[in-house]
Amino acid sequence: MPLLEVEGLDVRFALRQGEVQALRDVSFSLERGERLGIVGESGAGKSVAAFALLNLISRPGYIHAGSIRFDNEELTRYSERQWRRARGNRISMIFQDPMMTLNPVLTIGAQMIECLRAHRRISTSEARKLSLARLRQVQIPSPEQRLDQYPHELSGGMRQRIVIAIALLLDPDLIVADEPTTALDVTIQAEIMALLLELCERHNVGLILITHDLGVVSQVTQRMLVMYAGRVIESGPTREIINDPQHPYTQGLINALPQMTPPGQRLNQIRGSMPSLAHIPSGCAFHPRCDFAQLPDGSPRPGCQAQVPPFVDSGNCRVACHMVRQMQQLDLEEATP
Fold first, then answer.
1. CA distance 181 to 188
2. pLDDT range class, residue 111, cuts 50, 70, 90
3. Are 41 and 212 in contact (CB under 8 A)?
4. Which domains does the chain have, with CATH numbers?
5. Which end of the chain has the lower number of beta carbons within 10 A, N or C?
6. Which family does the record claim for this protein (predicted)?
7. Distance between CA atoms of 159 and 144, rounded to whole angstroms?
8. Residues 172, 175, 179, CA angle at the centre, nearest 5°?
9. What are 47-59's pLDDT values in tens digits?
10. From edge to edge, which strands make up the β-sheet containing 18-30?
């Protein structure tokens, strides 16, 4: 049985000009100890999906439909009291900016001890010992000294390590990391991701890594989802998607990587930009930016502008693209005697 099962998740925001869909029919699963990456441009719906998993969507946002089952329990039916027990205890989250996560007026030790005592019946001295053990685990130098320091006294990389230590304090089954290395330089990014990977493997913790960095996803995750305009458009094993992307959007993301362009030439880019949630294009949301939305003769590809593409299986991946479906049908017709 999967640790996490998300089916048909639909998140909406009730605005004055009308409701907008931030997530549309998002479905995926995660096994215990598995690492899943969610990628896409800004505005694709990655962070909204993460916040929905922990019921952190603020009004006017709300979960309109869908199911989130964690360890065979339906999270969408949880009361606020049940959520307080689950957050940090069974599911932890690492946010983008550690300075927005840590309380600037409390020492690191006070915050870690408060977290432990909110979920466990232990003494302050026991909580301090556990906090020290976690700081050593994330390779914080002089942990006894760091416990009595404030967040502003630490470097960005050290703050992020402390956030990871807090996320692991209560031995959760799942960690959701929302772009955990965005504010760090490249060297520190690599160290943090290597540390997070090692800790998840050691403790058999499931990881959902949300990022726009395909390089990080390829090194850390086993499976990945590609999101566009609030919908999953491709999913499958990370290596398979990176080596042979099927959806034109995924192809564009990979071709935009700097290493895909010869030295001295302009970097590749996907033309246009992510559509506003209030004005999602009809049919396939990606068709205004897609180089394959037209046939070789210049006519529109059937379905691209009129129908939301259904998922089709391609190898071990699932792809929502009219072109892929039509190519599969042509291959089938040619193979039929």
1. 8
2. very high
3. yes
4. 4-228 (3.40.50.300), 231-260+283-335 (no CATH)
5. C
6. Belongs to the ABC transporter superfamily.
7. 15
8. 155
9. 999 999 999 998 8
10. 18-30, 4-15, 61-70, 73-74
Q: In terms of DSSP bridges, do strands 91-94 and 174-178 run parallel, antiparallel, or are they unpaired?
A: parallel
Q: How far apart are CA 242 and CA 108, in angstroms?
A: 39
**How many whole angstroms separate alpha carbon 288 and alpha carbon 272?**
8
Tokens representing 190 are 């690599």
Which sign, positive or negative, has the C-alpha torsion 248, 251, 256, 260? negative
Instruction: Judge whether 162 and 146 are in contact, CB under 8 Å.
Output: yes
pTM of the predicted structure, to 2 decimals: 0.91
The answer to whether 173 touches 206, Cβ cutoff 8 Å, is yes
Tokens linked to 65? 């439909």
Cβ neighbours around 291 below 10 Å, total: 10
Q: In this structure, what DSSP letter does residue 300 have?
A: B
Residue 297 amino acid letter: D
The residues near 155 (Cβ < 8 Å, ≥ 6 apart) are none
Q: How confident is the model at residue 236 (pLDDT cuts 50, 70, 90)?
A: very high
Q: What is the pLDDT of residue 170?
A: 87
**Integer Cα distance of 219 and 23 in angstroms:** 27
197 neighbors 35 (Cβ within 8 angstroms): yes
CA–CA separation, 210 and 224 (whole Å): 10
